[in-house]
Every structure is written in C-alpha cells, then in structure tokens.
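hey so i finally got around to running both of the ones u sent me last week. sorry it took forever, my laptop kept dying halfway thru and i had to restart like 3 times lol. anyway pasting them below in the order u listed, first the sequence line then the structure token line for each. didnt double check formatting much so if smth looks off just lmk and ill redo it

first one:
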Amino acid sequence: MSEPQHPIQTTAEFLRLSDVPPEAEWFANLTNAATRRAYENALQDFMRFTGIARPEEFRTVTRAHAIAWRDDLVRRGRSGGTIRHRLAALSSLFDYLCEKNAVSHNPVKGVKRPKADSNEGRTPALGDHQARKLLDAPDGATLKAKRDRAILATLLYHALRRDELCKLTVKDFRHERRGVPHIRVSGKGGKTRYVPLHPATGGLVYDYLETAGHGEDGDGALFRPVKNNTGGGLGKAITADGVYKVVRAYSAALGFTIGVHSLRATAATNALDHQADIAKVQEWLGHANIATTRIYDHRKTRPEDSPTFKVAY
C-alpha cells in the first residue's frame, strides 16, 4: 500500500504564489541570462524615470509616459539602438500584461522609435593580424595562460556568444558527427547547435584540461576560474564578467580595447570574407533571421568588388 501523499506546499505558501503579480511572472519567465540583465536594466531605468516603486504601478502607465521616457533617453545621449531595445523591453512586459488581462492595451505600441542608422553592425571586428596577436597574447605555461588561450580560440574560431561559452561543459567538447569532432552549443531560446571543432581550438582545450585536471568531469564546467576560490568556486563555470575581463585585458595590452562580442563579429566577418555561404554562417552563429547575419557581411563595401572593376572595353 502506498503512503499517503502530502502536499509539498502549505496552504499559506500556495496562496502566496497565487498572489504573485503578472509583472513579476513576466520577469521570472525570462530564462536567458543576457536578456534578463538587459531587460532588468531597461525596466529599472523606466521605474526611476516614472517613480514606479511597486509592480502593480505599471498598470497606470500611459503612452505619454513611454514617449516622455523615450525623449529623456534621447536627451541623455543614448544611441538609437539602445532606445529601441529599451522600448522593446517595456513593450514585452505590456504584451504579457495584456495577455493576462492585467491591462487593456500596450501603451508602448505606436510610440515612434529612432530609425536604425544603417544595416551594418556597430560591433568592431578585428583584422586578421590583430586576431592572430590576440590568440598569441596569453604567454607562458601557467594554468591561466592555457585557459585564456583556449577561451580566445573558442571565441575566435567558433563565434560563440559569451553566455554560450560559459555554459560549455567538458563533454560538450567531446561530440563527434560523421567522424568529425564537434562542440555542442546551448544557444539562445534553448536551441542547441553542433559546431565543428577547429583543430587549433581542440589542441588548446585539451592542453588546458590536462593542466587543470578536470578533464574526466564530463558534466562539469569546461572553463573555470583559476583563483579567488574563497567560496569553493573553482568547480563552477567562469562568469560572463570573467570572460569579458579576459578579452578586455589582453586586447587593451595590444592597443585595441574590445569586448567579447567583437570576437564573434570577427569570426563571422572573416568567414564571410573567405567566401563562406551566408546561410551556413547563419546556422553557425545560431541566428534566427538571416538579416542579422547580413550585418557582418562587408563584402558589398569592398572597392575591389565594385562593378566599376568589372567594366572592360
């Protein structure tokens, strides 16, 4: 006879959960860490501007509030892309509130947003010589140098996002498809893609794992901190901020300070410049829309490809 089932939650706990406002539900449902950070920054800025202190106060927001906030962002010198993204975050919240019948309409709908400056990305891509220098920048045989070389190679040869790199486990580097080593990448929206492992990256990663000693921990984080283990953190994955600091420090020492996304832009631009098929590059990057991939395609701007040089009389 089976034992009687006892509720996991008490009645009081159940009632508290039923009282969670939909504004808090919306934020809790943002599973992507980068999206959560960006949307949280946007909503906190809006709350400071309007004086909102409690989630329920969002239901009093009107289109006039959204327009005034947009104009304030312009006055503060925020870029068109930043303003569009912040309005999109606010609009996403109100779409959810409409769905939950907490408000009757989305006050952000119809608010004019700044036009995109162009179809080209603003993230700077490195030249080939700069990329080679960056790959060689971590010098020596220390664990940190080996880890950093492996991180930079993984970013530059595989165009991973920062959060994707942080999520990698040891066994993610040990996949094989049709006899070719692949990396299993957990991308945006819970989508998984398999990217062929570049031989240069593979050698550096295995050298790092041999020195680090966690190569048999298949489910454990691949890239880990190498110091400041005050809370037992050496077994955890390197943080997104930790990856940022790695890229920032080495690039600054070489005289071209960049962020992590520049390495993704560099890889995409390099692949396209070397005649990679744009549809394949889209799949490689994990882009849902090929228009996003086209941002990295600078071939149309190269003078040598102009029809001018195709004319012959």
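and the second one:
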Amino acid sequence: MDFKDQIKQLSDRVVKLKENILTEEATKTAFIMPMIQTLGYDVFDPTEVVPEFTCDLGIKKGEKIDYAIHKDGQPIILIECKHWKEDLNSHNGQLFRYFHVSNARFGILTNGIVYRFYTDLVEKNKMDEKPFFEFNLEKYRESQVEKLREFHKSYFDVDTILNTASELKYTNEIRNAIVQEVNNPSDEFVKYFARPVYPGRFNDVTLEQFRAIVKQAFAQYANDYMNERLKSAIGSDAVVENRAEAKAESPVQSPRAEEVQTDEPENKITTTDEELQGFYIVRAILYPEIDDITRVVQRDTQSYFGILLDDNNRKPICRLHFNSSNKYIETFDADKKGTKHLLESLNDIYKYRDEIISAYKMY
C-alpha cells in the first residue's frame, strides 16, 4: 500500500474511533503507535522505538518522554503524547525541556490527530517555540503528505529535513499572518489599502467601514482568481462536453446516488452561467486536495446540475439545484444520502467546504 493510502486509512480510523478513545493511553495505542508504524518504524522493537524514554533534567532524574525513535543507537525524534481531545497549545513546555537534554534534532507533540514537528532553527540545541510543520489527520493536503513522508524511516535524513524546515517555518508563519489579516484586518492593514482610494482622515467609524470593505474585496479577489484559473484549465468547450455527457449517461438520483438509466432530451437541458460558476467554486474548493482537478466533472440534467468525481455517477460530490427561485446545494454523507442546503448567494457554497471535501475523500 502506498504511503498516502496508508495515511488515508489512518485518517479514516481516527474519524471512526475517536469518540471511543477515552484516555491518553488509548490514544497512544489506537492512533499514535499506528502512525509511528506507518512512518516505517517497528513499534515492537525496543531498540528502535523506545517507550517511556528517560530524559534526566539536571537534578530531576528519571523524567520520561512517551516515545523516542532511535537510529544507530541514538535518539533522532522525541514524541510527547496527549489525549486526542486536548489542545496542544499549552503542552509544548514539557517537550521543550526534554529536547534540551537530548541529542534528538526533532520533537513531535501530538494528540494522535494533530502532529506538530519542532527543531532548533532559531538557537542550536534549543527547541523553537513554534513548530516548523503541522500535520492534521482530519484535514490535510496532498503536499503535506509528501512532507510527512520525509520522516519515514526509508527517507529520513537530518540534513534534508533541516534544509527545508526553515523555509516551511517562515512560509507558514507568513501565510498565517496573511490569513489573520484577511479574516480580521488590523487598522494598519486597512489603512494600507484604503489610503490610495480615500483621501480623508481615518476615524473609528471610517476604519470600521473600510475594514468590512477590505474583507469583502479579498474574498471577492480569491473567488475570482480561482474561478479564472479553473475556467482557463477547462477551456471553452465545457458546455459542449456537458451536453454530450448528459445525453450519453444517466444522472445521479436523490436521496441515494444509485445508477438509474433515464433519457434526458438534449434540447431540454440548459446549462446556466450560475451553474457553471457553482461548478468552478466546487473545483476551487477541491483544488488543494486533488492532484488532477480535471477528475472533477459536471453533468447537467433537467432536475439538477451534478458534480462528479471521475465522470462516475456513483461518485457524486454534490448537486446544484438552481432551477427554481430558491437555490440549493445538495451534499452527500458516507451512505450517499443527500441533504439540501439553502444558498443566499453562490459564495455560500464555500460554507459547505468540509462536506464537499469529505465526499471527495470517500472515493
């Protein structure tokens, strides 16, 4: 089984079992040990994966960390574990102390779902306060799986990881700063964009007005940018392809996505600009999650606009119901049972990002 398939399997395991995991020890057994095993290390070999590894802290002797992964008799990764429900933000102090007295170059703080990777980029032999990489089993991108693969026993190389850790660390911090400013713009951020278009003085009322405008402008830009990229990739023949598909193959039925043969007269199916715009938004949502976005296709019918994976009517991602005054998006659960959600605008499709991604990941 490929590494990314193993990670997907472990992700499914976490979602299925987590509510039954009541203790930290159960978290280790059900989630963390399988992850260590997935990374290629033998959890049953005490010379490779050492549980309760002793880290003497000055006069405090016998302090233990949950796991230490060894290579050539030396620790290379320290792992501190918490219960899956615990917030990791308040727990890096213990790993920080252990890292300081160990020869390991990497530390992992995890609750079995989120894995935070630390090293000593700022000051040698002193663990950084912030992780350079974070992997969330419930929400990850394909590119993050490739980064995680570097910690696999077969590929592990300290110099290789350190060479990219710095770039990852600062790229992620800058990205997080951008996200923070876009979601909750600071006064200086608002003024930076408002000054070229507003010559007046900024008071509290003006700042609040422009804060909302800046947020709206960034949301609109992000939406337009992704849609334009996807339109360019699809080409000008999208509607022609859609009609051919609708004529040749049957639609997905609701509430369960079963294969049913129906004839859809071509001249009765009209694909609207709004339906295509909704299709582009769904593609934009899935773009970071899928290697080949062209696998996500659209198929229009008289009753709804279907969006499928691999042009397979047994793999529905969602449906758009835009043929009445009220517009709905229909999402599917693990049993392919559909649920309709009212849309006030096309941008509301982004509210159902998690449901759309979950549907894709089912297949």
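quick thing i noticed on the 2nd:
The longest helix spans residues 204-234.
anyway thats it, ttyl
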